[in-house]
Amino acid sequence: MLEPVSVSFESLNFATLLPMLIAITGGLLILFIDLLKSNLDKSIYIVISIMFSLMDLGAVITLDLNTRGFFDVMFIDGIAVLSQIIILGASILFISFAFASNRFHEYQYPEFFALFLFMISGFQFMVASDNLITIFVGLETASLALYTMIVLHNKDKSFEAAIKYFTMGALAASFYAFGSMILYGLTGSVELYKIFEVLEARNFEPAILIITSAVFFIASFGFKLAIVPFHTWVPDVYEGSSAALAGYISVVPKIASFVVAIRIFEQLIHSGIDWVEYILYAVVVITMTMANIWALIQSDVKRMLAYSSISHTGFVMSAIMIGTTQSNSGIFLYWILFAFANLGAFAMLWASRKRGVRYHERYDHPFEKFAGMVKLMPLGAVMMGLFMLTLAGVPPFAIFWGKLYLISSAINANYTILAIIMALNSAIAVYYYLKLVVYMFLKDAIVNRDGSAYMTNASISLRIVLGISAFFTVVSMFAINPLLDISSYFVAMSGF
Question: How confident is the model over 244-258, as pLDDT tens digits?
Answer without folding.
Answer: 788 888 888 999 999
